[in-house]
Design brief:
This protein is mainly α. It has a single domain, classed as Winged helix-like DNA-binding domain superfamily/Winged helix DNA-binding domain (Arc Repressor Mutant, subunit A, Orthogonal Bundle), CATH 1.10.10.10. Helices cover about 50% and strands about 5% of the residues. The chain has 4 helices and 2 strands; from the N terminus they run αααββα. It has a two-stranded antiparallel ribbon with strand order 1-2. Strand 1 and strand 2 form a beta hairpin. Helix 1 crosses helix 4.
Length: about 110
């Protein structure tokens, strides 16, 4: 999975990771049961602290999006709530709101 982080945005990096995993799961880019990258290699790849990735994964687990299997890693849950239509709509609405704010900052009407 390819993550794109914006270090200049006002949004915390771990929340950007959370949102991207949720969007990928809702869109089907991440399939149920699919493994997420291990924390350490992903942190190195993204050039962020391991705790940032760990915090994102912990948040995703608390939201029921992923599950951790000790000794195996983190996996997209098979009965995850992001697969529901209302959650996909909410994620889209949040993305649209962010785009509108960004356009406003760029003085685009």
């Amino acid at each position: 999975m390819l993550f794109q982080l914006n270090f200049k945005s006002g949004k915390a990096v771990y929340l950007q990771l959370v949102d991207q995993v949720k969007l990928a799961a809702a869109a089907g880019t991440l399939q149920a049961g699919e493994a997420l990258p291990a924390i350490r290699p992903l942190a190195e790849e993204l050039r962020v602290n391991r705790n940032t990735v760990a915090k994102a994964y912990a948040e995703l687990e608390s939201q029921g999006v992923i599950e951790t299997i000790v000794g195996k890693g983190c996996f997209v849950r098979t009965n995850s709530s992001p697969f529901k239509k209302d959650v996909r709509r909410r994620l889209l609405a949040e993305s649209i709101d962010e785009a509108v704010v960004h356009a406003h900052h760029l003085q685009i009407d």
